Design the sequence.
């Protein structure tokens, strides 16, 4: 499943309204959208970004943001 690049250009962090970075799984599929400011990862399920703050994963301090 892929995500349209035009959609990615429009999406922002629902908390700080900042830009998001797309992270891919080892197979190269979109896995989550990461906000580097808030250090939150928003999951992508079936090709659909879940942009709900209560669904976000808090990133550990030592996790690299590629």
Sequence:
């Amino acid at each position: 499943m892929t995500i349209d690049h035009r959609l990615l250009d429009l999406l922002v962090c629902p908390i700080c309204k900042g830009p998001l970075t797309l992270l891919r799984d080892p197979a190269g599929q979109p896995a989550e959208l990461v906000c580097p400011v808030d250090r939150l990862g928003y999951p992508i399920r079936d090709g659909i970004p879940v942009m709900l703050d209560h669904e976000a994963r808090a990133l550990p301090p030592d996790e690299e943001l590629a």
About this structure: The longest helix spans residues 5-10. The helical segments are 5-10.
